[in-house]
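Exercise: predict the fold of this chain.
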Amino acid sequence: MEVRESIVDILTRENAIIDELCKLGQEKQEMINEPESLRQIAEKEIECLTVLEELENERVLLFDIIAPGLTLEDWLDRSNDDLSDVKKLAITLKENFIKLRELNDINMELMKESLAFVQFSLNVLIGDDTPVTYGKASSQLARRSVIDKKV
């Protein structure tokens, strides 16, 4: 297999993995309050990321063979060959990375909100409606508390 064909193959596989990561990110949004489902999704993500890292390392090595010292964008701009397939895959890869980053940012916000709700629920459960301070806790509050907040 020619080096250029190998790069096309790698970019295609990278795009497929990022698509899979986007699907997993969307599943996370649906399962945000189901810890076991989130754990399973996270395991799948780790597998995908491991393969993606291997592919990226392989792509970098191959790219160094055909265009040492250049970025992919520079190589595409300077090349006289018809590289429309590589260019199209590179653009798709960039768009997929942006989509994945946006999806991950949304999921991080959802997780923060979910954790804030859990903290609020715990505070309601233990009857703690005051913020944690360094002052002495009232004896009434200390007796009602189910959770020891001392560090």
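Check your answer against the key: Confidence is low (pLDDT under 50) at residues 139-146.
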